[in-house]
Amino acid sequence: MRIALVGSPNSGKTTLFNALTGLRQKVANYPGVTVDHAEGKLQVDESSIELIDIPGLYSLKSLSPDEDVARSIFFGEAEGIQRPDAILIVADATTLERSLQLVGEILAEGRPAILAVTMIDEMKARKGVVNIGELRRALGIQVIGIVGNKGIGIDDLKHALANPKPWIHKVAKIPETTKGRFEWADRIYKKAVVSPENKNTLTDKIDKFVLHPVLGIFIFAMIMFTFFQVIFVVAAPIQEFFEWMVLRFGVFVKTILPAGLFSKLIVEGLIAGVGGVVVFIPQIALLMAMVAIMEATGYMARAAFLIDRVMGWAGLEGRSFISLLSSFACAIPGIMAARAIPDPKSRLATIMVAPFMTCSARLPVYGLLIGAFIPSTYVFGFLSLQALVLFALYLLGAIAALVAGLIFKRGLLRGATFPFYMELPPYRRPSAKNLYHRVGKGVWAFTRKAGTVILVASVLLWGLLNFPQVEKDSGLNQVEQSYAADIGQAIEPVLKPIGFDWKIGIGLIASLAAREVIVSTMAQIYRFEGKEDDIVGLGKRLQQAKRKDGSPAYPLPTVFSLLVFFVFALQCVSTLAIIRRETASWKWPAIAFSYMLFVAYVASFITYRVSSWWIS
Amino acid sequence: MNIETTTTLSLSHLHIGQSATIDSIDLRLDAKVRERLLVLGFVPGSLISAVRRAPFGDPTEFEVRGSRISLRKSETQFILIS
Q1: Taking the domains of chain A in order of start, what are their residue ranges?
Q2: Could you give the percent of chain A with pLDDT greater than 90?
Q3: Chain centre to alpha carbon of residue A485
Q4: Which of A29, A61, A131, A441 lies 20 to 30 angstroms, CA to CA, from A412?
């Protein structure tokens, strides 16, 4: 039997789905977390049940693309997804005064249904009461009170799901209009529920500060700021230790493998190349943890509320901001999150600017360059200068996203049809288990990318850098004679004006697959410089790298220009693929790639010129 | 409450901390948008209170039917209260 979980956004469907199936779909505390469907299996005694988790909806008359997904699955119109046999309606106990109407709308469809009332614990804490028996009588279906993240009521629910017979009940006729259903719902509500308190709750008290017009902005800025300080101050030393281990490992492998091309491929291509990227796991993990905490507590929706006006100036809305903030982890979930935006033009504009937000793939690049070239001093004695530079890069990306949004909404995507509305959920304590899974998932995705895209690119590059082979005693430099050098030198004229040499050119081309690949490219190219076996980190090698004329290969203007290029350019095949999927056209990914490359080039040019002039 | 029941004004005029009853949603608003406001709980006859405004004056957070929902002025001006 197939059962779909249907209910309002943020009513706890995915938490319940995870509790029932043992799966680990993403859960967080803001409306619109789930934007796609997920399926899972559940075995109760002899019956096996297929559960389908779908996005939340405020009404079966869907408005936003995520609601479209939910609606089409509900009615069995979704391609390749079988119509569910029964419906598990999920309603948050604390918002029943609104959501009972939706329960009525779903019941009116006449499908076998059961109602799970979630967050019973929170309801009690806010001095509200739900009379489950009364609800059962009034609705004519089974009603079970649960606490999804604590497993309370889950067993009862499982058994109810396995015994579908008492599901279909004759109910008093449910009115057809929304207004009529609200009147119908109000009668039931009055009998079955004592409203929870909203005033003087913990959420109310916290919001007095967090959403205060002046203090709120200050707190927001402090949170963002701490974010970057933590990434640099906490993660960098761990990363250095990882790097040292990778280098040691490379030396060790070299001693046990017979000298030759194979040993070179393993040590230079794989260990140096892939390892150079993998060492940034501490940064990735911290970033994921911080994004997960913001999402799980309910702060994300608050940030969207605070910033909505600013987004409005750019022609976007608060929910675009949730999408953009999610893009800090990776543009792909960020772009997917835009499904919760009802207005098609605002949604498209959000998709088109999300890749400007600094994603975790940029962290290794920023981490490498900032770590190597920005002194690790403290401003005012406590603010890490490196973290400040990192903050500036994030800020630059965010400003670019807003400005680009403004331009899109003024030009190609003018106008808005649908309003902005957003529910602010109560604050909730993030569960340690959930945080652990979120961080684990992020780190795993990063590692998998290192083991696939980055690995393949590293091996390809190794080939291009090592062939044709030069004679050992010819005195020629292997990198300079390689095929890769031919390619790099071919595009060097285009890169000269923005301060890049052909070696960076090789990295840029390689990074079109994924941004981190430039790190593994650099790790390979500069292994040939100096003594190969030295336990010297990549950052140090870059500092010491010299051009032919003896001048440093990475003067500060070049470093700045390179950083700025990575802020703007869309070097990510996966992002282009997801833009194509979400917009169902090749036009938008093509536009995104081109305009971002253009912006990157122009911005790098300006950065290089201005900083060269400034420093000289 | 000292709001006269005979006059209607738009929700955008509701001061922070004050409550009122929703009277109607202006028909000039798109039908889909009206329906959406309705399912969000902006139902005629429901009690509504303005909880707080975001920095720069927009959006405003409202409490209606037990939920906290924020709307922009561009919509609240079409919701009439009494």
Answers
A1: 2-194
A2: 55
A3: 36
A4: A61
The SS3 assignment for A5 reads strand
* DSSP 8-state assignment for residue A422: E
In CATH terms, the superfamily for domain B9-81 is: Ferrous iron transport protein A (FeoA) (2.30.30.90)
How close does chain A come to B68, measured CA to CA in Å?
Answer: 6
Contacts of B70 in chain A (CB under 8 A): 305, 308, 318, 420-424
Report the alpha-carbon distance of residue A253 to residue A437 in Å, rounded: 33
> Would you call A308 and B70 a contact, using CB atoms and an 8 Å cutoff?
yes
Residue of chain B with shortest Cα separation from A301: B70
pLDDT for A218-269, tens place per residue?
A: 998 888 888 878 877 888 888 889 988 988 898 899 889 888 888 888 888 8
Chain A CB within 8 Å of residue B54 CB: yes
A2-194: CATH number: 3.40.50.300
Separation of alpha carbons A264 and A266, rounded Å? 5
Tell me if A318 and B70 make a contact (CB, 8 A cut-off): yes
- Residue A614: both structure tokens together: 């400034």
Please tell me if residue B73 touches chain A, with a CB cutoff of 8 Å: no
The torsion angles phi and psi of A501, rounded to 5 degrees, stand at -95, -175
Verify whether the Cβ–Cβ distance A417 to B52 is below 8 Å: no
Compute the distance between CA of residue A55 and CA of residue A528 in angstroms, rounded to an integer: 52
Count of CA atoms in the C-beta half-sphere (13 A) of A92: 22
Residue whose entry in the numeric block shows the structure tokens 């790790």: A523
Token pair belonging to A244: 């040292």
Per-residue pLDDT tens for A311-360? 888 888 888 888 998 898 889 989 999 999 988 888 999 999 999 999 98
